[in-house]
Amino acid sequence: MPVAEDADVLIGSDGIDSAVRAQLYPSESPAHFNGVHMWRGVAPHPHILDGRSIVLAGGTHGAKFVAYPIEDPVAEGGEALLNWVLEVRHGERAAPLDRANRRIPTPEALAGVADWSLPWVDLAKLVERSTAIYEYPMLDRDPLPRWSFDRITLLGDAAHPMFPMGMNGGSQSIVDARVLASWTVPDETTDPAR
After folding, report:
1. What is the pTM of this model?
2. Is 156:13 a contact under the CB 8 Å cutoff?
3. How confident is the model at residue 188 (pLDDT cuts 50, 70, 90)?
4. How do strand 152-154 and strand 148-149 relate by DSSP bridges?
5. How crowded is residue 153: how many other Cβ atoms within 10 Å of its Cβ?
């Protein structure tokens, strides 16, 4: 059931399929898919190198593994939660793109890492110890001519979605937060557009 609220400002930070963006640009084309899915999971894993290292292996688009700790290990050589991502390229799809963030069964994920061999990470063990593994399609959209209209603005993937590579999203969110913090709402008494 829809809910109506009064607000001074509307910030649409509701993702790549932003409802706010769709209101501002109703004739925009769908998001672009590059054929790569990301399998993401979190699992306890032994300390890698100094315990704060990021692992990046592969490098060809659709064949890359990234992992980094999301907590400090209890002790030197101990285990810590490791966030991991495996890029997987699927063949041509006859069916529409599944945007439901499909849960990957463990046997499918094990098959996906079977050809990988990394000296610091036991990928099969990492997959088996993950509480859940989800598949996310790599999507982006064409740039917009503008993100803000009077007291409405877009933020994050609603404004400028991009393929999540090289920490693009994290870096961009810092820039967005800084810009938003300095943004001033137009004054009703001096704004000629009102």
Report:
1. 0.71
2. yes
3. low
4. antiparallel
5. 22
